[in-house]
């Protein structure tokens, strides 16, 4: 009855643009119901007649309303016109709500206060002072000139201030992206890195437009941790040669350590001393903010204590900049006749970058590469770099979300626009960095506008400070990178994984060693493939609970309950399990009831498999009944096998079907006995 009532309501909603028509329908329908309740039909519990009368009444009311409203068909045709659909879509897209969601700066600028502006200013300046040495250092990781890292820190923070939704995510070069650029640019050099930045932005933007954020969910926690840890170890390894003053480069983890072993006698004493002293200073400064002189609460601290703690926090936060400035000053002071005891960063191109299109062709050693050739050389990096950039940025947004939901689509759109815009100023791929995110959060940033001040700091450094960058020792930059990436090595996570689910160590270990001994994209690809194999196996081998049950009328039946959706990988397995369970040698076959309460979806292959199963059961005169099916699954099964498919919506229907089968079985047994008696005569 409820189903027909809903049908009338739905019909009235679709047909009647006149409220009076809808009121008339309700009045007539309620009157009809009240008359039926007084009749003998309810007393006899004849639900089939009630359903027929409801259906007939629904049809009559619908036809009546059609006559009353001559605009019925014109109304439907008008709603289905392309013009109206486009109009509704444009109205939804161009609404103020959509504008604020896709351009988040509009959502907070109307309530932006001077206090928020001051907090953003302090946080932006602090992150800017952090990003300068990091940008120069990550250029070294990517095997690019130092100015490229600084160029990468200009437009990214500015654009993200407009389109970004996470206030704690400062955009710029990162160690992982630097390593990916190093592995994928090959002989293309700077132009390859810039084009990779542009193409990465295009991929990120496309993923955001198509709402493909769910793809990131296929990178499990163990795989992500293993990848990050392996990448951090590789980054640190590439910096060891600069830390100890060796000239011999290496392209991968094994080759770098081989070169170090073969040329260990060529290491530079001054560089070693500078590098290890910088590491010690960085670690000590990092711990400085955690020093507690007194156990006083925040309210009980004196003004002097608050100033002292603030000073410690400032020194700890700006430790990278302090170490770089002091080491550069030492290198400048020890320079004698144009020679330094340290290997220095060297010339950094002064001034701001030119604004130009990304290089869609390039010339390297008298050989010209077209766009297609450049894209071919970049290879899988065009896909891997944006995916990992999104993963990094999303991780930062999630860590500092403070319980708020993260719009992954908006983050992809923002990151895509950041990379596309940055490629016009000769940038390498950019993303958020967890270390800078921690500094930004600790600095009390209030909105994404802090990125504007970060960008201004970088612009000023390029305009006035590049001559001093010449004297920064490579050993000091190597120390900055090694200490920064050391925090990314999370090998301690493998202990809890072992205690919770040991099988998760397989993709984690495969990812970790694959990244170390091959390439980063190969390693993470192996980990994702193993995870997908586990998921497919779980889909192909569902757990099936089988038990013998008894209906209210006393009839036995076999109750089969699969624990998940019925899709093509699991069809044959489910079919075989049900067939084996239903055939019991030496006993009379009983009906099989499949409880589909956990089956949320089914496909064509599953429907074909169930059709064959029903056919097999029919051949041995054993019924198979479905119950608790979702409407979508019923439609799928009926599309392949509309006649033989039996399903019940309630236990009362199930009891009726089981009783009907019992009567047919008794009749069949009687016929068989009569046939045997006639044969004997």
TrEMBL record:
List the Pfam families hit by this protein, alphabetically.
Sulfate_transp
At the top level of its lineage, which domain of life is listed? Eukaryota
Transmembrane region positions?
112-132, 144-163, 192-216, 307-334, 369-391, 412-430, 450-470, 477-498, 510-537
Q: Is Endoplasmic reticulum given among the entry's keywords?
A: no
- Chief place of localization: membrane
Q: Is the keyword Phosphoprotein assigned to this protein?
A: no
Q: Where in the cell is it found?
A: Membrane
Q: How does it sit in the membrane?
A: Multi-pass membrane protein
Q: Name one GO cellular component term.
A: membrane
Q: Which UniProt keywords apply?
A: Membrane, Transmembrane, Transmembrane helix
Q: Which PROSITE patterns match?
A: SLC26A (PS01130)
**Residue span(s) of domain SLC26A/SulP transporter:** 119-509
Task: Return the protein name.
Answer: SLC26A/SulP transporter domain-containing protein
Species the sequence originates in: Hypothenemus hampei
């Amino acid at each position: 009855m409820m189903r027909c009532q809903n049908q009338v309501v739905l019909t009235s909603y679709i047909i009647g643009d006149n409220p009076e028509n809808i009121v008339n329908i309700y009045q007539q329908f309620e009157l009809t119901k009240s008359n039926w309740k007084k009749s003998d039909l309810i007393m006899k519990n004849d639900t089939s007649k009630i359903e027929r009368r409801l259906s007939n009444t629904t049809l009559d009311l619908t036809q009546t309303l059609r006559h009353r409203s001559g605009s019925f068909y014109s109304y439907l045709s008008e709603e289905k016109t392309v013009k109206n659909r486009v109009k509704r879509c444009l109205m939804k897209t161009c609404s103020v709500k959509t504008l604020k969601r896709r351009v988040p700066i509009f959502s907070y600028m109307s309530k932006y206060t001077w206090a928020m502006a001051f907090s953003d200013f302090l946080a932006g300046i602090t992150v800017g002072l952090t990003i300068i040495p990091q940008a120069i250092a990550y250029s070294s990781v990517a095997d690019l000139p130092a100015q490229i890292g600084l160029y990468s820190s200009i437009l990214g923070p500015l654009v993200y201030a407009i389109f970004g939704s996470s206030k704690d995510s400062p955009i710029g070069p990162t160690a992982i992206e630097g390593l990916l650029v190093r592995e994928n640019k090959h002989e293309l050099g700077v132009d390859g890195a810039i084009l990779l930045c542009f193409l990465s932005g295009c991929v990120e933007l496309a993923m955001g437009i198509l709402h493909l954020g769910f793809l990131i969910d296929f990178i499990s926690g163990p795989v992500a941790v293993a990848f990050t840890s392996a990448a951090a170890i590789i980054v640190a390894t590439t910096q060891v040669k600069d830390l100890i003053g060796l000239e011999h480069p290496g392209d991968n983890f094994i080759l770098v350590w081989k070169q170090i072993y073969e040329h260990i006698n060529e290491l530079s004493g001054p560089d070693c001393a500078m590098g290890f002293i910088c590491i010690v200073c960085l670690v000590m400064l990092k711990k400085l903010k955690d020093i507690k002189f007194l156990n006083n609460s925040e309210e009980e601290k004196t003004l002097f204590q608050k100033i002292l703690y603030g000073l410690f926090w400032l020194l700890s936060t700006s430790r990278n900049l302090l170490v770089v400035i002091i080491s550069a000053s030492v290198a400048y002071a020890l320079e004698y006749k144009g020679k330094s005891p340290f290997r220095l960063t060297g010339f950094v191109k002064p001034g701001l970058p030119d604004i130009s299109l990304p290089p869609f062709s390039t010339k390297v050693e008298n050989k010209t590469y077209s766009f297609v050739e450049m894209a071919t050389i970049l290879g899988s990096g065009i896909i891997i770099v944006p995916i990992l950039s999104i993963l990094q940025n999303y991780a930062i947004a999630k860590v500092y979300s403070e319980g708020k939901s993260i719009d992954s689509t908006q983050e992809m759109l923002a990151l895509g626009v950041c990379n596309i815009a940055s490629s016009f100023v000769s940038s390498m791929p950019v993303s958020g960095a967890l270390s800078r995110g921690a500094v930004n959060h600790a600095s009390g940033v209030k909105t994404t506008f802090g990125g504007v001040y970060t960008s201004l700091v970088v612009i000023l450094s390029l305009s006035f400070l590049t001559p001093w960058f010449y004297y920064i020792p490579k050993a000091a930059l190597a120390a900055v990178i090694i200490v920064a990436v050391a925090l990314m090595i999370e090998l301690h996570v493998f202990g809890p994984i072992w205690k919770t689910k040991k099988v998760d160590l397989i993709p984690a270990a495969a990812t970790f060693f694959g990244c170390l001994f091959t390439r980063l994209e190969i390693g993470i690809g192996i980990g994702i493939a193993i995870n997908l194999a586990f998921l497919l196996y779980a889909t192909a081998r569902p757990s099936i609970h089988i038990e013998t049950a008894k209906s209210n009328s006393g009839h036995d039946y076999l109750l089969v309950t699969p624990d998940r959706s019925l899709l093509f990988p699991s069809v044959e397995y489910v079919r075989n399990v049900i067939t084996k369970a239903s055939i019991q040698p030496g006993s009379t076959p009983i009906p099989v009831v499949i409880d589909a309460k956990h089956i949320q979806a089914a496909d064509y292959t599953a429907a074909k498999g169930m059709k064959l199963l029903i056919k097999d059961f029919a051949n041995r005169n054993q019924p198979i009944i479905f119950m608790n099916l979702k409407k979508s699954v019923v439609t799928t099964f009926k599309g392949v096998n509309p006649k033989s498919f039996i399903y019940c919506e309630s236990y009362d229907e199930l009891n009726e079907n089981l009783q009907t089968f019992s009567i047919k079985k008794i009749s069949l047994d009687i016929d068989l006995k009569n046939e045997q008696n006639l044969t004997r005569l």
